[in-house]
Amino acid sequence: MNKKLKITIKLIAAIIILFVFIGTIVFLYTKSRKKPIVYQTKQPIVTDIIKKTVATGSVVPRKEITIKPRISGIIEKIYVEPGDLIEKDGLIAKIKIIPDMIKLNNAESRFKKSKINLNDAKKTYIRQKGLFDKKIISESKFLEYELLYHTAREEYESAEKNLQLIRDGMTQKSNQNTNTLIRSTINGTILEVPVKEGISVIETNTFNAGTTIAVVADMKDMIFNGKVDESEVGKIKLGMDLILSIGAIEDEIFDAKLEYISPKGIVENSTTKFEIRAKLKLNKKYFLRAGFSANADIVLDRKNKVLALNESLLQFEGEKIFVEIEANPNHYEKRYIETGLSDGINIEIKSGLTENEKIKVWNSVVK
Fold first, then answer.
1. 162-to-153, 167, 170 alpha-carbon distances in Å
2. Inside any domain, residue 206
3. Nearest to residue 323, comparing CAs of 274, 358, 297?
4. Of 79, 100, 65, 88, which Cα lies nearest the Cα of 202?
5. Closest CA to 276 of 332, 312, 228, 331
6. Which of residues 112, 139, 168 is at a domain's end?
7. How far, in Å, are 64, 181, 185, 188 from residue 178 at the CA level?
8. Long-range CB contacts (< 8 A, 24+ apart) of 30-35?
9. Segment 26-72, tens digit of pLDDT
């Protein structure tokens, strides 16, 4: 009995040792086998491909008018403030004239002389009319005195108006004068009123730019005014579409159409840039303020709803372009493809791929 037990124990021990040995062999073999490399995959997408270049600038009114006086004086009254809507010929300010003393003295002297001459001519006219009524003088002689009287009266009235204009800036008959009442020349919005009541202003003329009373702009006609680098200006042309992003209005884009490219460059920080302007399509939901900074994507070319692939998935063999398609799990096959328009991130796939195929991300291993 003891002998049989010993044999059984030995047999069990041998079996255990055999299993341990086989398990070790299997473990070492399994461990020594190289694990298959699993790559991430991506599929083509249907999207819009837009090739574009960037311009920086701002949104400004197309028509922005600086209102300046035609006479010098002191601002007596201001009737508007920035943000007000104003119609053409709407009143902006009133100027009180400070007359030139030499001109004023000459005007007063002329007025006094004309008054004396008028009184003298009137007396002569009345006297000669009495003689004419009595048939003492001829009609032709009387008409000479009548003409002198009317001429003296015209000179008196002219001298009086001239004195009133120099002294007051207006005549009593008209009670207004466009020189002293500053009016808007367009329909628009008051953007700026850089003067205050009581400030002296200078007239605009050949020798002087004059004092700005107000700046008026038509805010219904806005443009993008920007600049592009000389390396890009050769790629753009009139009529191209612009996609505008305005810094003050987040998550919203505006459409514009390129309508001007400057023929002359401007050097800024050792770089030559060219001015461009584009007509902006307004969105009624937003009020665009003059001077908003903006970035514009100028659309050089565009393909809508085309099959596209991320450019990072492409591989090159000389001038040929290929990708690796997942034929079976963890098994990839080379596929040559034909590409088209690129926006720098995605590229159009003209042939060689379908939308449902999986493409190996060759530099991205699944851990």
1. 14, 9, 9
2. no
3. 358
4. 100
5. 228
6. 168
7. 21, 5, 12, 19
8. none
9. 666 665 555 666 778 888 999 999 888 889 999 999 999 999 998 88
The answer to whether the Cα torsion of 324, 327, 330, 333 is positive or negative is negative
DSSP symbol at 172: T
Let me know if residue 84 belongs to a domain. Answer: no
Residue ranges making up the domain that contains 359: 39-50+305-365
The number of distinct structural domains making up the chain is: 2
Q: Any residues with CB less than 8 A from the CB of 52 and at least 6 apart, and which?
A: 243, 297, 298, 299, 300, 343
Whole-model pTM?
A: 0.62
Q: Which long-range contacts (CB under 8 A, 24 or more apart) does 81-85 make?
A: 81/190, 81/193, 82/190, 82/191, 82/192, 82/193, 83/189, 83/190, 84/189, 84/190, 85/188, 85/189, 85/190
Compute the distance between CA of residue 171 and CA of residue 164 in angstroms, rounded to an integer.
6
Nearest to 93 by CA among 73, 79, 74: 79
What SS3 state is found at 7? Answer: helix
pLDDT digits (tens, 9 = 90+) for 295-304: 999 988 889 9
Give the whole-angstrom CA distance, residue 332 versus residue 324: 6
Cα 232 to Cα 274: distance, rounded to the nearest angstrom: 9
Asked if residue 93 is part of any domain, the answer here is: no
Residue 325 lies in a domain: yes
As a whole number of angstroms, the distance between CA 307 and CA 248 comes to 35
User: Which of 168, 195, 219 is the last residue before a domain boundary?
Assistant: 168
- Identify whether the C-beta of residue 360 lies closer than 8 Å to the C-beta of residue 47: no
Are 247 and 239 contacting, i.e. CB atoms less than 8 angstroms apart?
A: no
Is residue 178 within 8 A of residue 170, CB to CB? The reply is no
With a CB cutoff of 8 Å and minimum separation 6, the contacts of 66 are 212, 214, 215
CA 357, CA 43: separation in Å to the nearest integer?
6
Using CB atoms within 10 Å of the CB of residue 66, give its burial: 0 to 12 exposed, 13 to 18 middle, 19+ buried: middle
